[in-house]
Hints:
The structure holds two protein chains of two kinds.
Chain A: E1 2-16, E2 23-37, E3 42-46, H1 53-60, E4 68-73, E5 76-79, H2 87-93, E6 94-97, H3 101-104, H4 111-122, H5 127-140, H6 145-148, H7 158-170, E7 176-180, H8 188-205, E8 208-213, H9 216-222, E9 225-230, E10 233-239, H10 240-245, H11 250-257, H12 277-281, H13 297-301, E11 307-308, E12 314-315
Parallel strand pairs in A: 3-8, 3-9, 6-7, 7-8
Antiparallel strand pairs in A: 1-2, 1-4, 4-5, 9-10, 10-12, 11-12
Helix pairs in contact in A: 4-5, 4-7, 5-7
Chain B: E1 2-13, E2 16-28, E3 33-37, H1 44-52, E4 59-72, E5 75-78, E6 90-93, H2 97-100, H3 107-112, H4 121-134, H5 151-163, E7 169-173, H6 181-198, E8 201-205, H7 209-215, E9 218-223, E10 226-232, H8 233-238, H9 243-250, H10 289-293, E11 299-302, E12 305-307, H11 312-317, H12 321-325
Helix pairs in contact in B: 5-6
Amino acid sequence: MTIILKTSHLNKVYKLGGFFNRIKINALDDVNLTVESDEPVIISVVGESGSGKTTLAKVILRLVEPTSGSAHVYDRLVAGKGDKPSNREFLNSVQPIFQNPFEAFSSHRTVDTYLSDTAVRVTKLSKTEAVDAMTEALHLVGLDYRDVRGKYSNQFSGGELQRVSIARALIPHPEIIVADEPVSMIDASLRMNIINLFLSLKEEYKRSFLYITHDLATAYYISDYIAVMYRGSIVEFGDAKAILADPQHPYTQLLLDSIPEIGKKWQRKRIALADIEAKEFQFTGCRYCNRCPIAEDKCVTERPPAVKKVDGRDVYCHFA
Amino acid sequence: MIRLNNIVATYTTTRGEVSAVDGVNLEIPTGKIIGIAGESGCGKSTLLKVIYGDLIYPLALKTGSVQYGFDSFGQEVTTSDIKEYWFKRISYIPQSSMSSLNPVIRINKQFTDHLDPSTDKAKVLEDVRAYVQKLDLPPEAIDAYPHQLSGGMRQRIMVAMGTFFNPDIILADEPTTALDVVVQKGILLLLMGLQEETKSTIFFVSHDMGVHYQITHKMLIMYAAKVVEFGDSDIIFTEPLHPYTRMLIESLPTIGDDHLRTGVSGRPPSLWEDLTGCRFAPRCPLATELCQTTEPEFKEYRRGHFAACHYAENTYQSSEIAILYDHHPQNQSPE
C-alpha cells in the first residue's frame, strides 16, 4: 500500500514576545497521522482557529520548516531531515489551493498567466502544450479556456475564480492537492458545487485531497479520514464517518453539538468558551482540560496518549 | 409594527445608478428575531443600512420610508430622523469587530465617547462592567485594548455595545460569520437570552440557514434586490413556498445524511441588466414561459406567509419537486 500521508512526531514551535517574557507556542505538538491506501482519499483536518491546522498544511506544502519530526507524502519525504525531492519535483506531486481566490490571484495580471506559468515552469511544457494542458484542466472544473483567457480576477465570481485556482493546481497532475479552507469565502448556495467537484476529481481523476476546514458538515460529506485538532494537538483521528457518527473525545463532541443544523434545535445550555489561547498552549497536561466536563487531576498534569480503538481510530483522551 | 414602505435603495457608480434593494414592502411585527437570508449581493446588508438610516453616498434612498413603530413628541419616527436615536433605540452589531473598534483606544473609552458630556461616565462604566458579566466576559475586559482580546471576546464586546442601552431595534449584520462554531453557538445563545429578556426586535443577517433555523422567529429571503419570501421560521423551514428558499435550505450537507447535495447552480442576474419576469427564473427548475415574461406578485398565500412565485401554491403541494432539485436546472424541461 502507498503511504498517502504520514507525519511522525511533527513539531512546530513559534516564539512570541520579547527577550525576557518570551513564550513558546507549540503550533504543532507531536502530530502523528498515518493514512495508507491504494485508492485516492480525501483527508480532512478540522479545528477552530489557532488549532494548528493551517500550520500542518504549510509544513506539508513546505512553506514552513518543522522544528522537529518528519512528513511523508506518497512515499516521499517532504519535510524533516533526510533526502527530499527538489522543489520542482515536489510541486509536480503536491499542489495547493488557498482560501481566498481574490487574494491568490493578483488583480493586475490575467488569471490565465498563472495557469500557463505553472504549465511552463513546473511541468516544463512548451507554450503550445501548455494551452492544451490549460484547456484540459479548465474543462475538468467545468470551465472553458476561451471564457477564461485574457480576463482579470475581478471579472469572475468567487466560485468561478476558485474553480480556476483548482484548475491551476491540476495542471502538473499532482498526486495530492492541499486545500486550505477552499470554500469558506464562497457563498453557501454555491459551496456544494466546489465540494462536489472535489469528490468527482477524486473518483474520476484519482487525485487525493488534504482538506483543511472548520466546517464539520462538508468534512463529513466528502472525507474518508478526519483528524480533529485542538491547540496544536490531534485529539481524534480515524475514519470520518465513524468519528462524526460517534465522537469519543469530549472536544469532538462539543464541536458536533455546536453546528447549527436544520431540524435539530440547540439545547439552551451555556457553554464554556475558550480561555486566552496562549495560556492553553502552555498546559503540560491535556490542552482541553480547563473546558472539559470530565476532566480530573490527571488531565492537568499528564498529556493523554493515543488510545487505539477497535474501529482503528486514535483518541487522545485519558478516559477514551 | 415596523413598516417598510416601498423601499428602493440605489448606489451611485460611474456607470450610473443601480438598485440594490428594489421595492420592498413589508409589515414586520416587533419583539421577534427576524432572519434575513440570501446570497452575496442580494441586498440584505443594504436593506439593513436603510433601516439603520445610514444613508451615506453612494447609497441613497430613492423612494419609500421606514416607520419604526415608536414616536417622539407625537411625531412618528421615520428614516429621516432615526439618526437621533442611534444606540438609544436602534443599534448595529457589525461583522468585523476588529475593524469596528478603534485599535489605539481602550474599550471603556469607546463605550462612553458618544455620551452627553453631562452624563456621569464613571457611573455608566460601573453599569457596563456589571453588564458584560452577563455575556460571560470578565469585567476587566473593558479596560483592554481590542487586540488584547480574542475574536470571540471582541465580538461579545460588540454585542454588549449594541445591547447595553436596551434599544428597541438591533441590527446584526453577520455578527458571527468570522467566528468558530463553538464561539458562534455561545454568542448566539447569549443573544437569544438577551432578546427574550428585553423583547427587542433583532434583524439578523446571515447566509447560514442553519444559524437562522436555530435563532429566528421570522424569515425574510432576498434574491437579486427583491424579497421573495417572508413568514414564520417554523413554516419556512418545513414548507417553503418559493423554490429558491427550498434550494437554500437543502443545499448544505448535514452530518449523518449521505444524500447527495447539489448547490444552486448558475449565478444571480446582474442588476445592470434589464430584468423582466421572475429574477430567479433562469436558475429555477420549475420556470415556465410565464416566469420569463411576467414578474410574480409578492402576496400573502397563507396567513402571515408571503411569497413572490407564480407557482407558490403548487410548490408546497407536490412532493415530487424534491426529485427535480436533484437534477441540474438546465436539464429540466419546463412543466
